[in-house]
């Protein structure tokens, strides 16, 4: 039972980080209609920027994280304005390939700047653990859950209760009507891309802590780890992205703890994809997605 509780807590922590990345995917998808694979690059760049700020510039950890969030938001906005927006008349598949190309370009640039060795972010949690009722929990997992829940709550509040959130939703659902009401779809898209970049950077920092394995080029693969979360929850559903992220994190950690050795070490990383396939076979629109009705 103790092992199950520990795996569940670590699964929730991992799922919260997947949810941050997945929500960034969904925000951009709703605002621009683009599946932005470049999100993985922002996870990677965010972790390295935070590392550089803490270890090279010796800034406080929180300041370093905030700086990484702001800079990744700005990079994402630049990518949308200078690359993606020029492809507005291209097919969605072309846009996906272009954002995938941007992701592939990031990793060698990062390795050229910081090398390919795993680096220590210098996070304040380190490898510290606390023991509650015989259950050993890393402080990083607790902080990851708390910070992720707080940030996700703020994002949903912004969407539901603020003028900029309402403007983003209006521009995403009907750009022409939004323009008639004085809302700039381009501005709304820019804010969406900035928000997604910041969420990815925060996820990158949380994934790159000492317990998470450190800052390393492989963090870009989180973009693909978050894809099951998007489709599990339902494409285009912010709430679904969060539920899908938690589902992916939990199933991955449970598989890591309980899957037979015959499946190999990498089976836990693949297991969320298998769960996604099973869910979509039963409910093709995902857990929170709406059914598409076709009329003759």
Account of the protein in words:
- The chain has a single domain, classed as ABC transporter involved in vitamin B12 uptake, BtuC (Orthogonal Bundle).
- The chain is 69% helix and 3% strand.
- The chain contains 12 helices and 2 strands; from the N terminus they run ααααββαααααααα.
- Strand 1 and strand 2 form a beta hairpin.
- The chain is globular.
- The mean pLDDT is 87.
Question: What's the gist of this structure?
Answer:
With 296 residues, the chain is an all-alpha fold.
Topology overview:
Layout: H1 2-32, H2 39-56, H3 61-82, H4 92-114, E1 129-132, E2 135-138, H5 139-161, H6 163-173, H7 175-180, H8 185-207, H9 222-225, H10 227-233, H11 238-258, H12 267-282
Antiparallel strand pairs: 1-2
Helix pairs in contact: 1-5, 1-8, 1-11, 2-3, 2-4, 2-8, 3-8, 5-6, 6-8, 10-11, 10-12, 11-12
């Amino acid at each position: 039972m103790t092992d199950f509780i520990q795996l569940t807590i670590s699964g929730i922590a991992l799922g919260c980080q997947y949810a941050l990345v997945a929500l960034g995917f969904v925000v951009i998808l709703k605002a621009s209609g683009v599946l932005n694979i470049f999100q993985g690059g922002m996870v990677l760049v965010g972790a390295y920027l935070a590392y550089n700020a803490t270890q090279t510039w010796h800034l406080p950890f929180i300041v370093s994280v905030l700086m990484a969030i702001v800079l990744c938001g700005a990079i994402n906005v630049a990518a949308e304005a200078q690359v993606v927006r020029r492809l507005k008349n291209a097919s969605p598949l072309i846009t996906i390939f272009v954002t995938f190309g941007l992701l592939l370009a990031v990793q060698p640039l990062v390795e050229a700047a910081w090398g390919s060795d795993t680096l220590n972010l210098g996070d304040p949690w380190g490898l510290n653990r606390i023991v509650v009722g015989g259950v050993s929990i890393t402080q990083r997992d607790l902080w990851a859950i708390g910070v992720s829940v707080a940030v996700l709550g703020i994002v949903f509040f912004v969407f539901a209760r603020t003028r900029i959130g309402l403007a983003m939703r209006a521009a995403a659902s009907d750009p022409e009507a939004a323009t008639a009401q004085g809302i700039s779809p381009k501005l709304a898209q820019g804010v969406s891309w900035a928000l997604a970049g910041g969420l990815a950077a925060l996820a990158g920092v949380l994934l790159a802590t000492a317990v998470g394995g450190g800052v390393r080029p492989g963090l870009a693969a989180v973009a693909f780890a978050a894809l099951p979360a998007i489709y599990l929850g339902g494409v285009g559903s912010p709430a679904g992205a969060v539920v899908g992220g938690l589902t992916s994190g939990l199933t991955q950690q449970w598989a890591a703890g309980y899957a037979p050795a015959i499946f190999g070490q990498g089976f836990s990383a693949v297991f969320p994809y298998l769960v996604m396939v099973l869910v979509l076979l039963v409910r093709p629109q995902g857990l929170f997605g709406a059914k598409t009705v076709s009329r003759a």
